[in-house]
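Example record used in the benchmark description.
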Amino acid sequence: AYVTIDDFNFYENSHELTSNQDTYLDFTLKNIGVKDASTINLSLSCDSDGISITENNVVVEGISTNDIVTIDDAFFIDLSDGIANGTIIKFTLKFEHDGMSYEKDFNVIVTSYNFEITEIDAEEFDGNGNNFIDPGEIAKFTLKIQNTGSYKMENITANLISNDNFVRVISKDVAVEDLNIADNTDIEFEVYIEWHILPKPISLTLE
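Model output (structure tokens):
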């Protein structure tokens, strides 16, 4: 007897996981050996950060040779929200039956919301009219973002964070239109530049 993974599925028959998701994992097993398999003990493990398996043991009451058995809700998995889009997670399923113990690895990709800033434009918004952003003036920053994740981005609120004490972002909690996969949109922020600074680059973070 030799039992192996024939297929696996997460929620809604998906082969992928989603960041900040909790889901059951279903398995389809097949006995490819020449003898029937007696009681099979299965245990699931994963060494990746951000993955928690809260139900990681299951017992299958035997599989005849060449038979396929599906185990619904075999294991319960919880993902944190800090796993980056496109991360590959390796799981290990351990088999114990008929005096044998062996492991099978399988990889799963994690998908999540993700965006990239593809363009940045800054212009004088409230100042002396010379088309330069001078100290003591308000500038308008326009950031073009693209949805580079695997899902439509909905109900988005954006904030621009200043990493310099001489720059103050006026606009807060800017609502952004829903964004389909690969689509682009512009986000505008008003930014105040403090007095008495020398010309220098500034550092901002979009979240």
